[in-house]
Amino acid sequence: MDELEKMRSGDFYQLTAPEVEHYQEAGIIWNDELRQGNNLDRPAQLLRLKMHLGALGDQAVFGTSFSCLNGPNIYIGHHFLAAGGLTIEDAGEVHIGDNVVVEAGAVVAQDLPANGVFAGIPARKIADLANDCG
């Protein structure tokens, strides 16, 4: 299993492996396209992001440097909070539930269930949230 397959499966992998670096470089291109809208106000930025993703719930907050490869594969629920440096590896569909917090620098390589706090590379659940956060 190469490092890219490990990343997609949720196993630990080497961030500097050539296949992972290439995968991330492609995502940076999409991230640069999103940044073109950074002179817009916050609601307009979220609207632009919503147009690129498969779904984006209400009250979503993204930190700086969000990146992914193929936005239409990403489905994000309501009440989502992501700190800076979030990467979503979305070769296939990625579903993120409602009431989810993702800590800085996390790499999401698989679905994240609702009502949790996630961190790491790949992102793993580190805490539960009450399901009445909204």
Sequence of secondary-structure elements: HHHEEEEEEEEEEE
Q: How many beta-strand segments? A: 11
The general outline is globular
Largest sheet: 5 strands, mixed
**Average pLDDT for all residues:** 80
Q: What's the number of structural domains?
A: 1
Oligomer: single chain
Q: Please estimate the helix content.
A: 25-40%
Give the number of helices.
Answer: 3
What class do helices, strands and sheet pairing give? alpha/beta
Low-confidence stretches: none
The whole-angstrom Rg is 14 Å
Instruction: Classify the beta-strand content into a percent band.
Output: 15-25%
Instruction: State the end-to-end CA separation.
Output: 41 Å
Strand line-up in the sheet with most strands:
2-5-8-10-11
Question: Could you name the key traits of this structure?
Answer:
single chain, 134 residues, alpha/beta, 3-stranded parallel β-sheet, globular
